[in-house]
Amino acid sequence: VLRNPAGLNDTLVDLINTVSLADTAPTKQAAAVSNEVMARVDIEIGKVERLTAIEVAAVNRLALERAVEAPSGG
After folding, report:
1. What is the dihedral of CA 49, 43, 19, 2, to 10 degrees?
2. What residues contact 45, with CB distance under 8 A and at least 6 apart?
3. Distances (CA, A) of 44 to 9, 47, 63, 67, 74
4. Is residue 58 classed as helix, strand or coil in its secondary structure?
5. Which letter, b or e, does each residue of 10-25 get, where b requires 16 or more Cβ atoms within 10 Å of its Cβ?
6. CA-to-CA distance for 61 and 36, rounded, in angstroms?
7. What is the pTM of this model?
8. pLDDT tens-digit profile of 16-32?
9. Is the pLDDT of residue 51 over 80?
10. Backbone phi, then psi, for 54, in 5-degree steps?
């Protein structure tokens, strides 16, 4: 665990499991952790969206400029 601490995915899955198994409303602590984790997830999603919008678009433009063929799906 010390070498490979839980990532966002693990933390989110554990939180969902904990909250979904409870017979009562989520605790204040669970809600706070949920808000923190979702804020971190939103940041990561923003990074992916920026990467897609900027970097992938730039690679696609270069490929089109140089007439690079797309790889076949087979």
Report:
1. 110
2. none
3. 11, 5, 27, 32, 32
4. helix
5. ebbeebeeebeeeeee
6. 37
7. 0.60
8. 888 788 788 888 988 88
9. yes
10. -100, -60
